[in-house]
Amino acid sequence: MLAILTAILPVFALIGAGILFGRWRRVGRDGIAMLNDFTVSLALPALLFRSLAEGDWAELNRPSFLLIFAGGIAITFIMGLLLPPPSDAEHPLVDRSLTALTSSYPNAGFIGIPLAQGLLGPVGLAAGVIAAILTISFQFAISLLLVEIGLARGGSLRDSGVKVVRALARNPLVLSPIAGGLWALTGIPLPGMAARFVDLLAAAASPCALVTIGAFLALPRGDDRVPTPLLGPALAIKLVAQPTVMAAGVFWLAPALGVPMPYPWAVAAILLGALPTGTGPFMLAELYGRDAELASRVILLSTAIGTASVMLLAFLLVPR
Q1: Angle subtended at Cα 211 by Cα 271 and Cα 32, rounded to the nearest 5 degrees
Q2: What is the CB neighbour count within 10 angstroms for residue 232?
Q3: How many alpha carbons lie under 13 Å from residue 67 in its C-beta half-sphere?
Q4: What is the pTM of this model?
Q5: Is the Cβ–Cβ distance between 129 and 136 less than 8 Å?
């Protein structure tokens, strides 16, 4: 029990430190944007690059985990996509896409990697990296494509696809694991100074990401008395349906398909599916000038509730 608390509490304590930092220092949106830019442009890409360039590829080669986790995300994304948009929505597909992302986007990069690594060691780190790549590179890209299609803007589906590909091609979180994988293919160790540089940046990823989440949660919100009809369904999909789908996948579907998953990887899939919603939906809503109130509230409440639910799942599932 002490080992589990030792792994979990520092992660959420850093989020708490970020909340205090955001309130005491009155960190506004510009300050949080700078923290976020450092994390997603330098620190987290360094961690992803190192994990692929120096990682154990035999450990990373887990098709059963990839299948179950991607499938769990896809199922819950579709559940969110089926939720009704606001009756006055000008672009229903845009709102449906943002709701779907809000309902199914686990915070694998910022919270998942340090949490899974702390609980499960190298297996947790590998699972967190795979989950982060899936959510950041693929799930976010699909939602972005649906938003572009929903907005139409006089362009074709091909034009929307080209725009999404261009955006991904400039994204460090997409490019860094590709670069790490290509470097690994050479079989050459990173030079000493380069390795030290990458290590220092990678070490900053988790604490900076967690503090950034906390500072974001400390931002002033809209009037909480204003009803948000999709809040309950979105939270239920994220915190109940997604880990349940992951559990069904690892304990029933994978064995039925003849690809049983090692227990630590099964635990990682469930824990990563139980994570609170990441900031991606909020960032996408802000980028396209859409109402970000649902995303903002789901991120806040899923982080508060998810802290308890993840701790409970860790006590129940993580080997002692």
Answers
A1: 120
A2: 10
A3: 15
A4: 0.84
A5: no
